[in-house]
Structures are given as structure tokens and as C-alpha cells.
Amino acid sequence: MLSTLEAKLLIVDDLPENLLALDVLIRGENRLIYKATSADEALVLLLQHDFALAILDVQMPGMNGFELAELMRGTEKTKHIPIVFVSAAGREMNYAFKGYESGAVDFMHKPLDIQAVKSKVTVFVDLYQQRQAIKHQVQALEKSRQEQETLLGELRTTQDELRLAVRMRDDFMSIVSHELRTPLNGLILETQLRKLHLAKGNADAFTLDKLRAMTDRDERQLNSLIRLIEDMLDVSRIRTGKLSIRPVPCDLAALAARVLENLGAQIAAAGSQVELIAPQPVPGVWDEYRIEQVVANLLTNALRYGAKKPIEIRVHADQGVARLEVRDQGIGISADDQQRIFQQFERVNCGHSVQGLGLGLFITKQIVDAHQGQIGVSSVPGEGSCFHVRLPQTMEKNS
Ligand code: ADP
């Protein structure tokens, strides 16, 4: 690794034959030799390249070797390049250079001792290559440290997400068991009561009117069980991307009226007056069953959280977009909660005695999204909520 790092060497001498001789002497594998016949030429090369070593002739016309070295020491880019002076004068000249403190300096005297020159250059080249190798290792270490930090960050996020998922699953399981138990308890109690009457031969408990009321109660409990199971199935369909949409031509106004009719018993039980304002048919191409689910979910919520106050459903069309609004005057939703309620298992106002898995609005939004529509809510706590849905009357084919 070390010896494969290329080292550039600069030799400066006013006599071309000296340059040539030195070049031959110090040439070697992975060494690039640059030659300059004056200090000016050398300065240009020094600015263009990173040198492992500069060998400067001291006696040159114009700027001499010491002056060039002083200039090099004063420039950031060339400050640390080791310098070897070549001098024909005696050793007392060694002290004529002032810039020792900032970088390595050495001397060679003419006539040159071939072995001494070779080993000196080799030492400087090795030092340079070691420095470069360390620099690369430091850079590689820094890079891997940064990668580790990124990985650690990702791990922490995944850990947080997993913790949240586990918490949500646990919450969900406890809500599901509670929600399933409520209608099942109702059914089991009814069954036990009927068995008791049967055991006592109490035929009065099974008059036509009483049987009708019992059947209605059973139906309500069974319907709420079916709804819970349907919701859970829808969520797993959404998760696996299997919530399919089968669009057919239909009328949103007629569809809303039908939902109102189907939920007649629930509306009567909730005690809110529901008014449908749909003066004209609103035709579109949608999955009828799924859009009925949207209207039913929004209306059921308005009945649940509507504080028995009047509820208004508006259906109309505007520039190719069908609009549905479900407005209640109930408990309302705080601004913070408005952001959360369209997500899975998000229930707010849990202090109120209302049931639900926190899935209705999540499923509703997925259905609206699948129809390339939008859903939103505006609400003031204590004054009521208005859920608004926009559905393009015809869907774009390619999405
Ligand atoms: P849930 O089955 O719990 O009702 P939803 O997804 O339908 O689940 O609703 C999520 C939460 O949004 C509810 O728990 C409720 O707190 C709030 N919410 C939904 N509709 C209304 C509304 N019309 N008024 C007030 N709060 C509402």
C-alpha cells in the first residue's frame, strides 16, 4: 500500500546537465520527477503540484535556493515540503537559511555522494508515503465513523418505530378484546335468561312482541360484531394492498339516502335529528359499497359524538368533483387530535363512553384515497365537527 502511493519530486538547478544527472540518480518506481531551471519556474510547479520533496540548488542566478526556500516557507501550500539544498560551498553555508522551524531541511554538498543522495531521497519519499497513508487511513476512519453514526441513527429510529408498533399492537389487542366482549356479553346474558325462562316453562317470556324485541337486540349485537370484524379485515386488506375498488356508475345523493335509511334504527337510538340536503343527483363512477362505507362511518361518528344535537349531510357537485359534508354539533375535536384521527387505532375523547377501534376514519381515508379523493375535518371543541370529502366524479385511469 505504502509504495504504491505516487511521490512527486522537484529538482531545481540552473544547469540542465545537473538536473539530468540528479534525475537519473533519484528516479524510481512511483516517483515522478519535475525539473525547473530557475526559482520562478519552480514556483509555478510548486503551486500546481503536491511535492514529497524539493531539491534546490543554492547558487542560481536571479533568486537563489535560499530565497526560493524562504518563499516556500511563507506559503501555506508549500510550507511543509521538505527541502534539500545542494551547495558547492562549505558546510558553514548550512546556516544561511532561516526557515528551519517550519519543515524538514537537509543539505548535500557537491560533488554529490551517489549513495548518500539515494538514501536521503528514499528517506523523504518513505516519510511522505507514510504521511499520505496515515492521511488516507484517517479519512477512511472518519468516513466509517460517519457511516456508523448514520446507521446508529437509523437503528434508533427503527427501534422507536418497533416500540410504537408493539405498543399499538398491545393497545389494539386490549381494545379489540374489550370491544368484542361487549356484544358477546350481551348475547350470552340474553341466552342465559332465555334458558332460565325455558327451564321454568315460562311461555310469557316468549310472546310475539318479546321475541321481536329479542331478535332486534340480537341483530344489533351481531351487527356490531360483524362491523368490528369487517373493520379488522379491511385494515389487513389495506396493509397488504388488497383493498380493491370496483367503480361503477352511481349517484352519491341516492347512495347517501340509502345509508340514512339503513341506519334508521341507529339514528333513532342516538337521538339526533339527521337532515340530508341533496337537491340534485350527483353522478360519478365509484365503488358503491365502499362509498356507502364512507358515508356510514362519518354518520355513525356524528351520531356517536354528536351529543344528540341535529346532524346535517350535504351532497353536491362542483366542477367535476362530488362533495359530501357531514356536520354535527357535538363534542368536537381539538386541533392536535384533528391531525391524528385519520391514522390507525387513533381514538381521542376516550373518557367518553363511546366504543370503537379507532379504525373507522383510517379505513374511510384509505377508501377516499383509493378514489383519488380527499378527506378533511374542521372542528371547534364543544361546538361540533364537519367532515368533508371530495371525490372526482370520474377517476384517472393511470393511477
Ligand atoms: P372510532 O371507531 O374510535 O370512532 P374513528 O377512526 O371512526 O374510530 O374515529 C377516531 C376518533 O376520532 C374517535 O375515537 C373520536 O374520538 C374522533 N371522532 C371521530 N368523529 C368525530 C366527531 N364527529 N366528533 C368528535 N370526535 C370524532
In percent, how much strand structure appears in the residues?
15-25%
Instruction: Count up the helices.
Output: 10
Give the averaged pLDDT, no decimals. 89
Coarse structural class? alpha/beta
Q: How many discrete domains?
A: 3
What is the rounded Rg?
44 Å
Span between termini: 55 Å
- Output the helix-strand order: EHEHEHEEHHEHHEEHEEHHEE
- Ligand identities: adenosine-5'-diphosphate
Helix content: 40-55%
The biggest beta sheet reads: 5 strands, parallel
Rough shape?
A: rod-shaped
CATH class of the largest domain: Alpha Beta
What is the level-2 CATH architecture name of the largest domain? 2-Layer Sandwich
Q: Strand order within the widest sheet?
A: 2-1-3-4-5
Structure keywords:
10 helices, five-stranded parallel beta sheet, Rossmann fold, Helix Hairpins, 3 domains, 399 residues, 18% strand, Heat Shock Protein 90, binds adenosine-5'-diphosphate, 50% helix, alpha/beta
Describe this structure in words.
With 399 residues, the chain is an alpha/beta fold. The protein has three domains: 2-112, Response regulator (Rossmann fold, 3-Layer(aba) Sandwich); 161-239, Orthogonal Bundle (Helix Hairpins), CATH 1.10.287; 248-392, Heat Shock Protein 90, CATH 3.30.565.10. It is 50% helix and 18% strand. It is built from ten helices and twelve strands. It has helices at residues 16-26, 39-48, 65-73, 114-199, 208-239, 252-262, 264-270, 288-305, 335-340, 360-370; strands at residues 7-12, 31-36, 53-57, 83-87, 105-109, 248-251, 274-277, 283-286, 311-318, 321-327, 374-380, 384-392. A five-stranded parallel beta sheet has the order 2-1-3-4-5, sandwiched between helices. The radius of gyration is 44 Å and the shape is rod-shaped. The mean pLDDT is 89. The structure holds adenosine-5'-diphosphate (ADP). Adenosine-5'-diphosphate (ADP) binds next to α8 and α10.
